[in-house]
């Protein structure tokens, strides 16, 4: 009786082992579903593209009043008895003071802005901007305040001469404008434009540092 009971136990154990083996073999034949890996876009590249679409950041508008002065005299030059002579003619001088009001804008050209202008270290974003440029948007001569002194034997200043004075003054103005003020305003304007873009792209706690390329 005891041996029969042992035989039954062995048979049951064999059946259970057979079922376990068959179930595991069936499971191993099924293919495991693959999880698709998404390619998330490079947020720094997207940020740079968004900034480049801005084209220009106008940083400052200044009204500059400048008084342009000019003086000339008539001379008689040539040779006398083999010697060079240069004689200033009397009553031949002219003087003029021309008040000119200029409207000048500083701006940063962002058309070439790219991911190379941006570096990231954790939440710290460092942006290098191109050097600010300056453009003259308008100029106006204040004829009411213009002063002139023309001698008896000289003709008055012509419109062409006044235009030339304005042109030369414009070159001097653009060359000598204080770039420090424009640079600081450029940083402030860039921050106001770029920080919201970073926030939209998920940089909620980003710390942004802005440099100006002065090369």
Describe this entry's structure for a reader.
The structure is a single chain. With about 220 residues, the protein is α+β, with helices and mostly antiparallel strands. The protein has helices at about 1-30, 45-50, 160-175, 180-200; strands spanning about 55-70, 75-80, 85-90, 95-110, 120, 125-130, 135-140, 145-150, 205-210. Strands 1, 4, 7 and 8 form a 4-stranded antiparallel β-sheet that branches. Strands 5-6-9 form a 3-stranded mixed β-sheet, covered by helices on one side. A two-stranded antiparallel ribbon has the order 2-3. The N and C termini lie far apart (about 105 Å).
Short description:
The protein is built from four helices and nine strands. The protein is an alpha+beta fold and 215 residues long.
